[in-house]
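Lab notebook page, bench 4
Experiment: in silico fold of construct C2
Operator: M.H.
Input chain length: 139 residues
Purpose: comparison with the prior construct
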Amino acid sequence: MSNELPKGWVSTTLGELFDFKYGKGLPQEKRNGKGSVRVYGSNGVVGIHDKAVTKGPTIIIGRKGSVGEVHISSDPCWPIDTTYFIDQFPSGVPPEYWALYLKSLRLGQQEKSSAIPGISRSDVYETEVPIPRFQSSAE
């Protein structure tokens, strides 16, 4: 990344900003179809369940299959094991911004496997990100 960032901006990495958590397995036959919790796979909503893995806004990223696809849920959800998910965000920037930013990175193009498409969390963590330095009102 260029050292010529605008004044007040810093360069960091996705790994310093986020913890890409692994989705949790929930086979189709165990998705009870009751409740209002959306179940996300790498290509989007794949079912409904009555329990959630996350507690609030969540970004879901396709890890296997539809590699690099980015979805956002404003409600608690259940990302399955073909995904990574992010449910903690740096203060001052809404999750919707980060979802759009991650889409712009075209993470699927970082896929390195040969037989089964997939992206490596460690590779994605190295992606550099320019961000404005946020200052609290006390500074």
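Observations: The CA atoms of residues 39 and 47 lie 5 Å apart. The chain has three helices and nine strands.
Next step: discuss at group meeting.
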